Amino acid sequence: MEFQENPENPLVHIISSSTEAEEEQEEEYGMTDAEREEIEELIGYKFNDPGLLQTAFTDSSYKKEGFETESFERLEYIGDSVLNLLIAREHYVANPEFLPGKLTLLRAANVGTEKLARAAMKWNLHKFLRHRKPLLNDQIGEFSKAIEEYPLHSAGLVDSPKVLADIVESLIGAIFLDCNSSLETTWQVVKKLLEPMVDNTTLRPHPKTQLNEYCQKNNLQLEYENLWEKTGEVKVYVNNKYVGTGAYRSKRTTALNRAAYKACTQIFNDFTSPNPTPPVLD
Amino acid sequence: MEFQENPENPLVHIISSSTEAEEEQEEEYGMTDAEREEIEELIGYKFNDPGLLQTAFTDSSYKKEGFETESFERLEYIGDSVLNLLIAREHYVANPEFLPGKLTLLRAANVGTEKLARAAMKWNLHKFLRHRKPLLNDQIGEFSKAIEEYPLHSAGLVDSPKVLADIVESLIGAIFLDCNSSLETTWQVVKKLLEPMVDNTTLRPHPKTQLNEYCQKNNLQLEYENLWEKTGEVKVYVNNKYVGTGAYRSKRTTALNRAAYKACTQIFNDFTSPNPTPPVLD
């Protein structure tokens, strides 16, 4: 059924039962062949069962009366396990001397929400997400702007929409099932999607951890002034000297990390240098 | 080099450099061919690289001066990921209607410390563990007795030695690497080691959770008397009526779960019945 304009009175809509319109709607509701082919081209993998690909991009909000559809939740569950194993194996083989603690940190950086959400944006996967969440497009837009400001992995400086990470995981799950559980086939796609991987040379702790460790080691007094409830801001003082402010309205931990990042930049002069020469704070 | 008795003065040891003794010591230090074959027979898998099998059974405490050896920590890290994926896939395929929450519970029951420690005991894998932890054999003995009392998965009623679960995970990691990452080959061994798997019909929440939910639902007042610091015991009262005591010196949560288990048995008459008829507590 669809609403049609009444030519006699444009404010009154006529309800018609157009079978043609229904068929069109059904087609619109499903993923088109062109969309499928575009994704397959992007990721370099052709699906045997295109239904898996469609499910991988379907959020649970994408429901319409009369149309049965499965959401990506179950595929995401499988994809998460596949991704964990693939990344674990990669770092295990590449770093024969690393103990589990180090391997766990490396894996966390490569399978975390931010890393996966960035991968989704980089490969334009968000374009194909099927959802009916009114606020989501704005969140994705905000994230897209935020990562321009922090082009590398931000380690807690940006707030990443979970659904972007979800579709990467569900896509990995879909490929794994579609290729009959071949780890090697799945790995080819994962490697491409996630590059450049975070490795031992690019792994960086969250600014808050970094600042905390630095102050402890150098016997400096560290204090945060929490104005977040009022203004969305957090201010940092080291040995009673103001060293930076971080702001983020939607999430306090992100504001905190941004404040710590500003403080680190201020204290270390050059935050990215491996051997910073910090000024004396007294 | 080894110390030998001085026939002229038994208190003075002569340092000799006996190559024969060293060789004998080296052989004793490594896993024997007979041990390897026994394990391979038990698990139904023959290793291409027997070094991996030896590492899988070597605790980090098993060190001797002059002998380099790797412990199972890294293999355990890989095995944990492999096991997670294999169990996730198994339940995913077997239960097409289960959402991730349910799948996560099922997986947790099959990859948890107690389940894996029981598997190690069932298949006698603990016999081959190479360690120098003076208290470990007693702990294993205690666990062995405890599981006689709770023959099914106890869900928190016994305290399981983590090292027993570790060797199952490291063995799975060793097989996975040895068979060139074949999930199917690894799964054949895992299925055998872990059977019977906990499935939807045998999955059971911890007694504490069960008792809590029951009391909330039936509007009953639940209280624990904590005597653990003094006697290792916890007592439970429902609507001020004493319903059971649980005792376990080494771990408070185990004592608590045992108390809840006694209480459930008391309240439900037959705890194992799917439709218990609880008495009125007033």
TrEMBL record, chains A, B:
**Highest taxon of source:** Eukaryota
Q: Where is this region: Disordered?
A: 1-30
A GO CC annotation recorded here is: nucleus
List each copy of the RNase III domain by range: 36-180
Give any Pfam family that matches: Ribonuclease_3
**Keywords of this entry:** Endonuclease, Hydrolase, Magnesium, Metal-binding, Nuclease, RNA-binding
Please list the GO terms describing molecular function. Answer: metal ion binding; ribonuclease III activity; RNA binding
Gene Ontology BP annotations: siRNA processing
Which organism is this entry from?
Answer: Oldenlandia corymbosa var. corymbosa
Q: Where is the composition biased (Acidic residues)?
A: 20-30
Question: InterPro entries, alphabetically?
Answer: dsRBD_dom (IPR014720), RNase_III_dom (IPR000999), RNase_III_sf (IPR036389)
Q: What is this protein called?
A: OLC1v1024776C1
Which SMART domains does the entry link to?
DSRM, RIBOc
Cofactor needs: Mn(2+); Mg(2+)
Look up keyword DNA damage and say if it applies: no
